[in-house]
Amino acid sequence: MKKGWLERREYPVPADIPEALAELGIDVLKIIGDEANGKCPMHYERTGKYDQHPSWSCNTASGVFNCFSCMYTGPFAQLVVDVLDISWDEAVEWVRQRGGIERVNKILGRGKYIDDLVAEQETEVYTEADLALYTLPPREALRKRGLTKASCEHYGVLWDPERNMWITPIRDRFGKLLGWQEKSERVFKNRPYSVEKSKTLFGLHVFEGGTAILFESPLDCLRLYSVGVKGAVSSYGAAVSDWQMQLLFESADLVILALDNDRDGWKAAKQLKQRYRGMGRRLAFYNYGSSEAKDAGAQSGNEIRFGVDHRLSPLRVRFPD
Ligand SMILES: [Zn+2]
Questions:
Q1: What is the model's pLDDT at position 207?
Q2: Sorting pLDDT into bands at 50, 70 and 90, what band is 56?
Q3: What average pLDDT does the segment 311-320 reach?
Q4: Most CB within 10 Å of its CB: which of 102, 116, 129, 172?
């Protein structure tokens, strides 16, 4: 998402939101209460994956939209900016032409949700002292994912006992705390909302050099550590940034890409192979072999060690179409 809407102070809303969504080519799959649900229109741009489930909703009164999976959120005009690839002013005009302007002051031109986001941007600071409120994950949560307590201690992953959530700190390469991710079965949130996780890697501050193995999910790194494999780091998703690749090649002798074993993971890996083939022997690919596991988190210790030991060179690796 192009940044900038947080600084705006007016958010016009079209008169008929389902109609405006249709005009933008966004299919509304169902309307529950005043939330219109559909597939996230910017999911691929933001994560490198298509939204498989309808993760996205738009409030039919306020026009505020939100993807609970990739956190794509904002006022209606921002949606118009992104979908039509036009400027903010053009998008505001687009909304006004659809009967929006009168509603600006009357109805939730700025929903409470947006006020909360703005407040968070302006005031919230996430500190080590806040982290001290969290505990080590309980045995049951560790068992479910095949993780050891030592893996949590190594990577500094915590647990919120009140809300039963994983707390995954986001730190820069020197260990400075930038924020964290909150994750449960149903909820996934970045704190702060705008934390710049594409400029760092999970686990980089405890990486000791040698071989780095790059996963999409931080918890996959813990899974590797739990079966005795060190050096795993995570990009926080399939959309690996150039910045992150740069950090990796600066820190590691060999980078093994271990993105998810699914269509979107293969696609991202193919693109990275294309972009970094000049790194030659310093780049390799995790070997899923005949395993149908979606990621290392679902693999056995033997499968994981096979994936690393039998890594494939860029010349030998093949991805299904
Ligand atoms: Zn999304």
A1: 95
A2: very high
A3: 91
A4: 172
Rounded to an integer, the average pLDDT of 46-61 is: 85
Of 1-15, 100-114, 184-198, give the lowest mean pLDDT range: 100-114
* Domain regions of the chain by residue span: 5-123, 128-309
Residues 6 or more apart in contact with residue 218 via CB below 8 angstroms: 155, 157, 168, 181, 202, 203, 234, 236
Task: Note whether 5-123 and 128-309 share their fold.
Answer: no
Task: Give the position of tokens 């294309």.
Answer: 274
- What dotted CATH number matches 5-123? 3.90.580.10
pTM: 0.65
E strand or H helix at 243: helix 242-251
State the CB neighbour count (10 A cutoff) for residue 240. Answer: 25
Spacing, Cα 253 to ligand 1 middle (Å): 34
- d(CA 36, ligand 1 centre) in Å: 15
CATH number of 128-309: 3.40.1360.10
Tell me how far the alpha carbon of residue 70 lies from the centroid of ligand 1, in angstroms: 4
Write the CB contacts of 255 (distance below 8 Å, at least 6 apart in sequence). 211, 212, 214, 245, 248, 249, 279, 282, 283, 284
- Read off the tokens for 76: 């209606």
Report whether pLDDT(75) > 70: yes
Q: What average pLDDT does range 4-25 have in this prediction?
A: 80
* DSSP codes joined into one string, 246-295: HHHHHH-SEEEEE--SSHHHHHHHHHHHHHHGGGGGGEEE---TT---SS
How far, in Å, is the centroid of ligand 1 from the Cα of 187?
13
Distance CA 57, CA 70 (A): 12
The count of other CB atoms within 10 Å of the CB of residue 33 is 9
CA distance 58 to 81: 15
